[in-house]
Amino acid sequence: TADGIGRFGQFLYGGIRVAVIIVVGSITGQSVMPLLLENELKAHALHLVEAGEKQRSSSLNEQFKLDAKHAAAQAASDEVQRLREASSRLPPDIEQGLLDARVCWNEYANRRSSLLNSGLSVDEVRGQLNGKAAACDRLRKVAVATRDSYFSNVRGQLARATEGKQSQEAELSEAAATVKARIAGARTVELEALNPRSSTVLWSLLQSNSGALAKWAMISFLLLVLELLPLLQKFQAGKTNVGRRIARHRRARALESAE
Q1: How many CA atoms lie within 13 A of 36 on its CB side?
Q2: 225 in Cβ contact with 28 (< 8 Å)
Q3: What is the pLDDT of residue 152?
Q4: Number of other residues whose CB lies within 10 A of the CB of residue 101
Q5: 29-70: pLDDT as tens digits
């Protein structure tokens, strides 16, 4: 019937108005909330930024294997230090070989002096100590060759270790610089996105902070009531004495017109 259609239209119109009021209230609330929840939103935005940085740093460290590169660079540095120390001193067995050669020559010199003092000629002494001299010379040559070989080997290892250290440090420096640049770039974007006016920060705050949620609910309810107040007053108008008189008058006029 026409009356039913009219009522349906009224309900539809009322529903649309309520929906529009709720949407407008939500937009108003989104603008007002950063002011009313300023402290909570600032603290939560900072928390989200710090949590993001921590997670990002851990992820990038794992992606670029910074811990492994640090360990490799440190191991290379330790190896270079060990070889430098090794190149500045001889192992005990090589030192002993050189000492044995010196002792042998000292014995030779003492024996030669003793024989010369006994009246033997130089040639006679040389002939008697020929074997001793040959033995001492062999000891010296072996000891010196062993020493030279050791130093040559250690210096070669040191050169290779130094190159390896430089390579490891360069690789670590490059990876660390890349990670630092990515963190700085992400931080710039994140600081712009995660601020007290961000809906992401507000939603995260409401999910994690019951006090802020209660405050938001009370404020949102108050804003919604204020937005709906004119409509509620209009609906309430027909229920007052004046409203009833006006309604009776309109019905009477409608009946007269119908007659």
Answers
A1: 18
A2: no
A3: 93
A4: 20
A5: 555 666 666 677 778 777 877 778 888 888 888 888 888 999
Higher confidence at residue 21 or residue 4?
21
pLDDT digits 0-9 by tens, 90-132: 999 999 999 999 999 999 899 989 888 888 888 888 888 899 8
Residue 37 in contact with residue 214, Cβ under 8 Å?
Answer: no
pTM beyond 0.85: no
Cα distances from 91 to residues 22, 157, 159, 169, in angstroms, run: 88, 16, 20, 30
Residue with tokens 């108005």: 17
- The Cα 129–Cα 131 span in angstroms is 6
Where residue 119 falls (left for φ over 0; alpha for ψ -120 to 50; beta otherwise) is left
Give pLDDT tens digits for 195-209. 776 777 767 777 877
24 contacts 228 by C-beta, under 8 angstroms:
no
Q: Return the closest-CA partner of residue 173 out of 39, 255, 73.
A: 73
CA dist 232 and 140 (Å) reads 115
Q: Pick the closest to residue 227 from 18, 47, 8, 62 (CA basis).
A: 18
DSSP string, 73-89: HHHHHHHHHHHHHHHTS
Contact between 229 and 50 (Cβ < 8 Å) = no
Give the angle subtended at the CA of 153 by the CAs of 148 and 155, to the nearest 5°.
Answer: 95
d(CA 153, CA 68): 29
SS3 at position 119: coil
| Whole-number average pLDDT of the chain | 78
DSSP 198: -
